[in-house]
Write a structure and sequence with these properties.
Length: about 350
């Protein structure tokens, strides 16, 4: 019994040791299989990432305060499409962020990111001029769009000739002033130091100088959409010194004016000469709410910006100005315009 008991104890120990070895081995096998699975999964993920990831030759940043969001979205789309053709990634700095950044902060972000080029609509502030010069010192070329900053070291400007724009607005005013005294109100940006709008205003005055009319510039508060909308509504509902013609230099002001004349039953009493060709603006022309609107090819403008930056990066020089054509849409040609626009969408 003792011997048997001793042998039983020995066998029990061997069984325990054998079980421990089996457990350890099984653990190693499980770990090994897990590592193989992870490695295989990682390879699959990396393969998928390599298919989705694309390298570009250049990385450009596009920056604006987006006073006219519709216009700027079209400019961005034009830049994006041209960028794909030229192996360029165009990033809209500040897009979809939970925090709103100033134009100065967005410019600093673009410079810190060491992008290959910057597209910006300057606001006339000295700080922005300084940051454009700082980008130049960092060998980052800058192209200004819509508004110029000739005092900076920007490489090129893409936009509209302000004097021609004023003359074109003036021709539209002449179509609606008729006979007798009429008051023309031109909406200007209150916080902008852009000299371009003053040139536009001068062009309008020059065109109507031979007529017995009053041309008044009114500064609109652009601190927020609500403040500018309120200023425009105050102009439209002013019964003491009513305006007859309202000239809008931005798409945002045009849409505010359109809504205000409808709300205060002023359709037909006030002629609106607007800016840009959004669906709402075109619909208002068809309905007779807006007399006419000035439009530009915003996508072409964005494409020119990318072309200018790439030309400078590859050749070391570029034209100082790229001018985008302007056109007028009114009740006389809106049908033709809409037909061409539909055809263009179909071709794309």
């Amino acid at each position: 019994m003792k011997i048997f008991g001793r042998e039983w104890v020995i066998n029990k120990r061997e069984v325990i040791m054998f079980a421990a070895i089996i457990s350890i081995a099984a653990g190693f096998i499980i770990i090994f299989i897990g590592m193989l699975f992870y490695k295989n999964r990682a390879a699959q993920v990396n393969a998928a990432d390599s298919q989705n990831y694309q390298k570009y030759k250049y990385h450009y940043a596009i920056i604006s305060e987006e006073a006219d969001a519709l216009l700027w979205e079209a400019i961005y789309q034009g830049a994006l499409e041209k960028g794909k053709e030229q192996d360029v990634y165009v990033e809209k700095i500040g897009r979809d962020l939970s925090v709103s950044y100033s134009l100065k902060d967005l410019m600093k972000i673009a410079i810190a990111a060491k992008v290959d080029g910057i597209i910006i609509e300057p606001n006339g502030e000295e700080d922005i001029t300084g940051l454009i010069n700082e980008a130049e010192e960092m060998h980052i070329p800058v192209v200004t769009v819509l508004r110029d900053d000739p005092e900076s070291s920007r490489k090129s400007f893409v936009g509209i000739n302000s004097y021609s724009q004023g003359q074109t607005y003036g021709k539209q005013v002449l179509e609606v002033i008729g006979e007798g005294n009429r008051k023309i109100t031109v909406l200007l940006n209150s916080d902008s130091k852009d000299a371009g709008q003053n040139v536009i205003y001068s062009g309008i005055r020059e065109m109507v100088s031979d007529y017995d009319v009053e041309v008044e510039p009114v500064k609109v508060n652009t601190q927020s959409t609500f403040s500018s909308e309120e200023d425009i509504r105050n102009i439209i509902r002013d019964s003491r010194n009513p305006t007859d013609v309202l000239v809008c230099l931005t798409a945002a002001d045009t849409l505010c004016a359109r809504q205000a004349v409808v709300d205060y039953n002023k359709v037909g009493d006030i002629d609106i000469i607007g800016y840009y060709d959004s669906e709402l603006i075109l619909s208002a022309i068809e309905l007779g709410i807006i007399h006419s609107t000035m439009t530009i090819d915003a996508k072409q403008m964005g494409a020119y910006c990318v072309e200018a930056l790439t030309e400078y990066r590859e050749n070391g020089k570029v034209n100082e100005y790229f001018t985008v054509d302007i056109s007028i849409i009114s009740s006389e040609n809106i049908g033709e315009y809409l037909k061409e626009d539909t055809q263009d969408d179909h071709d794309r």
